[in-house]
Amino acid sequence: MRYLGPHACEEALERGELHALRIAPAAWERCAKLRLSAREQGVVIHQEPMDSLDRRAQGQRHQGVLGEGEALSFSTLEELETSLKARGNVGLVLALDGVTDPHNFGAILRSAAAVGADGVVFPERRSAPINETVIRSSAGTAGRVPLVRVVNLGRALDSLKEAGCWIHGLSASPTSRDYLGESFDHATVLVLGAEGEGLHQKIEERCDDLLRIPMPGGIESLNVSAAASVMLFRVLAQRGKG
Q1: What is the C-alpha separation between 14 and 102, in angstroms, rounded?
Q2: Cβ(99)–Cβ(128) under 8 Å?
């Protein structure tokens, strides 16, 4: 796994995933703290020309800093359910149905990490690969929230429901309720679909209810990462009232 940019490298270092660090001469001094921390953990540090880093990054932005290390690890659905049972009514999970754009996926992970979500569940197929673009788009925070990759998202939602979660799907359906009217005073799974397509029918049918974000400005829908952020922070705000 490659980590592009200083923030992603700092996060990987904190998680113990970084094995090597490559820094361009122009970024050497401003990365003094990162180099010191990396050296203390036994990470191999190289000073490398910018054009060499450009080749390694394959055209992606790296700000003169590139790390190499282990791929992000995944949690199991069983581990997530155990965590949720311990958390009780404050459990919070995101489930992603067909979010294939790695930039959106990474931005969603950043929001999930920001609110302290218990996990992000997504299918093996019809989902963005967890790669350098996702890591960079998450500003290096992807490893802060448990990632649960499942074979069948519908069955995973059924299992989470049996574990005591309420499944809220975000949908523009005429039957959807205004999300501002939901208290979220229970273990919550927020299910979001791909921009444009929305939730697949079989996934929508598994939701306990459907919520919508009102658009008084006349816009049809938000980018899925923006919608995820709105919903996550709404849950946080509702639960903070008490």
Answers
A1: 23
A2: yes
* Domains of the chain, residue spans: 2-69, 77-239
Per the CB < 8 A criterion, the answer to whether 104 and 39 are in contact is no
Which residue in this structure is represented by tokens 């190499």? 68
Q: Are strands 65-69 and 2-4 parallel, antiparallel or unpaired?
A: antiparallel
Q: What span, in angstroms and rounded, lies between the C-alpha atoms of 147 and 131?
A: 13
Query: What is the model's pLDDT at position 242?
Result: 43
| Furthest C-alpha separation in the chain | 58
3-class SS of residue 21: strand
Q: Dig out the tokens for 167 from the structure.
A: 């499944």
CATH annotation of 77-239 = 3.40.1280.10
Task: Give residue 241's pLDDT.
Answer: 55
3-state secondary structure of 26: helix
What are the tens digits of pLDDT across the range 225-234?
Answer: 999 999 999 9
Q: For residue 231, give Cα distances in angstroms to 5, 115, 190, 206.
A: 29, 11, 8, 19
Q: Tell me the three state secondary structure of residue 77.
A: helix
Q: What is the DSSP string of 127-158?
A: S---SHHHHHHTTT-GGGS-EEEES-HHHHHH
Confidence at residue 137, expressed as pLDDT on a 0 to 100 scale: 85
Residue ranges of the chain whose pLDDT lies below 50: 242
Q: Is the dihedral of CA 138, 142, 148, 149 positive or negative?
A: positive
- State whether CATH 3.30.1330.30 applies to domain 2-69: yes
Q: Locate tokens 């899925």: which residue?
A: 224
Q: Are the beta carbons of 156 and 95 closer than 8 angstroms?
A: yes
Distance CA 147, CA 204 (A): 22
